[in-house]
Amino acid sequence: QVQVVEAGGGLVQPGGSLRLSCTVSGIAFSVYRMGWYRQAPGKQRELVATITGDASADYADSVKGRFAISRDNAKKTVYLQMNSLKLEDTAVYYCNAALSTFGYWGQGTQVTVSS
C-alpha cells in the first residue's frame, strides 16, 4: 500500500521560513518525479515545485528564488524549504509522487503566513 505523508506545516510570520517534508512508502521512490502543490481557499490547486529522480528541479515563477525542493532517495523523502514567506503563500501544501500518467497524493499540510 502506498503512503504519502507530509509534515512541517504551521504558522509563520511574513519573511519567515518553514521546511516541509514528505515521506513515501510502497513505491520505488527514486524513479518517481516528486512534486509540491498548494491550494489556497477558493483557488485551484497549483504547482509549486517538482524534482525528478536525478534531482532536476523546476519551480513556479511565484516561488523562484525563495523556495528550494530537494530529495533524499535513501530516505524516500522530498523536502520543500520555504524562505521569505509571503501572505500569499498561505495554503494547504500537498505532496505528489508521479510516474508516467498516474500518481499518489498526500493528505496535505497547512501553511499559514500571518502577522
User: Could you name the ranges where pLDDT drops below 50 across 5 or more consecutive residues?
Assistant: none
Alpha carbon gap, first and last residue: 40 Å
Could you estimate the helical fraction of the residues in percent? under 10%
The major sheet is characterized as: 7 strands, mixed
The H-and-E topology, N to C, reads as EEEEEEEEEEE
Beta-strand residue fraction: over 45%
* Topology, number of strands: 11
Mind explaining what this structure looks like?
- This protein has 115 residues and is an all-beta fold.
- It is built from no helices and eleven strands.
- Strand 9 (91-99) and strand 10 form a beta hairpin.
- 0% of the residues lie in helices and 54% in strands.
- Strands 2, 4, 5, 6, 9, 10 and 11 form a seven-stranded mixed β-sheet that branches. The protein has a four-stranded antiparallel β-sheet with strand order 1-3-8-7, with no helix packed on it.
- The model has no long low-confidence stretch (mean pLDDT 96).
- It has strands at 3-7, 10-12, 18-25, 33-39, 46-51, 57-59, 67-72, 77-82, 91-99, 102-105, 109-113.
List keywords for this structure.
single chain; globular
Characterize this entry briefly.
The protein has 115 residues and is mainly β.
What is the strand and helix layout of this fold?
Elements: E1 3-7, E2 10-12, E3 18-25, E4 33-39, E5 46-51, E6 57-59, E7 67-72, E8 77-82, E9 91-99, E10 102-105, E11 109-113
